[in-house]
């Protein structure tokens, strides 16, 4: 019998095509938006699915696994992050979980740099200014920004994405790189002349830009809080393309309003899609709607990778991007 897969929302065609070519029977949610948990559980209960392709906007917990039933072997997440999935519950129920690492590294690193350049050069603010008809001629003091070139970048979390951001910083902008990670990487230090800081507290005071690249865990929630904003330079900028809850949004608001830091550029928010409305009033913040991996090329690759994980798992092989193997 053909394997049956539920896809929680329309994804790029390349992934769908792969699943069809593998002979899978597919049901793709037709809702134009995120399924509520009840809708998702309802959809999963309707049929017996062998696997599910889910998104970072789906909160997958034990109740959802229960709704999927015993024949369901895998939840393939269409994202590199997998904080939306309860891995412990997956293990208990012997359900595999996979993600899409690697293929989005370049794109997220590019978006991180786009944010860094744009906040420092006040690009979005200047665009608003120009469209509003406020440009009355060149001015020596008009919308002055900060250089990125030659400055110090503090990277929190030296995974694939953090390391790639460091590459652009050092090779492209002659920046000095400091990094904090639970693991030291001396090869990286040699290659980029980077300096390791074994505590976030000793990185923050020395960085002109702080960019976050850690996963969301209990231990990284509100990693940026009042205390840590207070350790940053008042000329420094925070960039976050990782997960929203890593930054305490109220603490960020206080830091921006008080001038504790100069600015922030965020692609992710604490309670997506909601954003603290008072942040939207500030010109010292730049916002993008969780699109750091959102290029056509990368989203196609993510779709193929997620599909391939399903195909391998349902063929009885170990899928390439396994993050939770199930209990047996
Ligand atoms: C995007 O946020 C991802 O985790 O892929
Ligand atoms: C994510 O892919 C990371 O390792 O940074």
Automatic annotation (TrEMBL):
Q: Name one Pfam family in it.
A: 2-Hacid_dh
- The residue range of the signal peptide is none
User: Which InterPro entries is this protein grouped with?
Assistant: D-isomer_2-hydroxyacid_DH (IPR050223), D-isomer_2_OHA_DH_cat_dom (IPR006139), D-isomer_DH_CS (IPR029753), D-isomer_DH_CS1 (IPR029752), D-isomer_DH_NAD-bd (IPR006140), NAD(P)-bd_dom_sf (IPR036291)
Give residue ranges for domain D-isomer specific 2-hydroxyacid dehydrogenase catalytic. Answer: 5-323
* Domain D-isomer specific 2-hydroxyacid dehydrogenase NAD-binding, first and last residues per copy: 113-292
Question: Cross-referenced PROSITE patterns, in alphabetical order?
Answer: D_2_HYDROXYACID_DH_1, D_2_HYDROXYACID_DH_2, D_2_HYDROXYACID_DH_3
**Keyword Oxidoreductase carried by entry:** yes
Q: Which GO terms describe its cellular component?
A: cytosol
| Residues spanning the membrane | none
**Listed GO molecular functions?**
glyoxylate reductase (NADPH) activity; hydroxypyruvate reductase [NAD(P)H] activity; NAD binding
| Superkingdom of origin organism | Bacteria
**Keywords on record:** NAD, Oxidoreductase
Q: Which family does it belong to?
A: Belongs to the D-isomer specific 2-hydroxyacid dehydrogenase family.
Please state what the protein is called.
D-glycerate dehydrogenase
Q: Which organism is it from?
A: Candidatus Ryanbacteria bacterium RIFCSPLOWO2_02_FULL_47_14
